[in-house]
Predict the structure.
Amino acid sequence: MSRLQLSFVSAYNERVQPLMDGTIQPEGVELLPTYSDPSETFWRQLKFQEFEISEMSLSSYLIARSRGMDFIAIPVFPSRRFFHAELSYHVDSGIKQASDVTGHRIGVGEYQQTASLWVRGTLDHDFGVSQYKVDWWMERTDELSHGGATGFAPPNGSLRCFFARTNSLAVATFTSGSAAASAPAGSAPNGTD
């Protein structure tokens, strides 16, 4: 009896690797693996729905489902990272505690990514820093962003979002103006979820 073939895309990590290399084989299923950086994976899935199985950013998944995309999530979290606990800041920025980011710039891959969502929630709920009291600098333009693929736009109001004019979010965040902090970028040099 032939096995059901399913395409599967994921980043390399030790939790998923046994599925990717065939060490573990689901009964009745042949996985056709593709390695991809999470940022690229999420964009490809949101834009083209290329694979039957993939990792997905939680925030992107929720937005996509709310807009009618036919995705089903299972509660598996291969990244196992607490991105909101990985903020970096410039030593000359004057930041001594989390509330000091008020009025400064925070660089993120993009505003709607899960890591950015956690950072905004943590800053607001744990440190009293409203998302409207900092400038958000995004690395990804609409053409290559998860938000662009889902049609998401940051909320209106006094929220200020800017696109970095460089390939390096760290350069854009830390070299001009009142650079303050940068949200985690994951394993890729240009930022991931």
